[in-house]
Amino acid sequence: MSPIREELVGVIDCLPEAEQFLLLEIARRFLPDDTATPDDLRDIRQARTEYAQGETVPHEAINWD
Fold first, then answer.
1. DSSP state letter for 59
2. Are the C-beta atoms of 12 and 20 separated by less than 8 Å?
């Protein structure tokens, strides 16, 4: 872990939970809206695998009513 990251973690650990939430909201503003999270990337890989193996349901096969 980099020294800056270690210091950030230490500062965050010292903050009350309400202040941690505010800091999280501020940090999120530095992230682009279209950046995939690790969970997103995992789900995309899984979906591509299922599609390649024919494990998907065609749109027409779903009863939307």
1. G
2. yes
3-state secondary structure string, 28-47? HCCCCCCCCCHHHHHHHHHH
Q: Is residue 36 a contact partner of residue 44, using CB atoms and an 8 Å limit?
A: yes
The structure tokens listed for 2 are 């980099």
Whole-prediction pTM value? 0.43
pLDDT tens-digit profile of 24-41?
999 889 988 888 889 999
20 CB-near residues (< 8 Å, 6+ apart)? 12
* CA–CA distance, 36 with 6 (Å, rounded to integer): 24
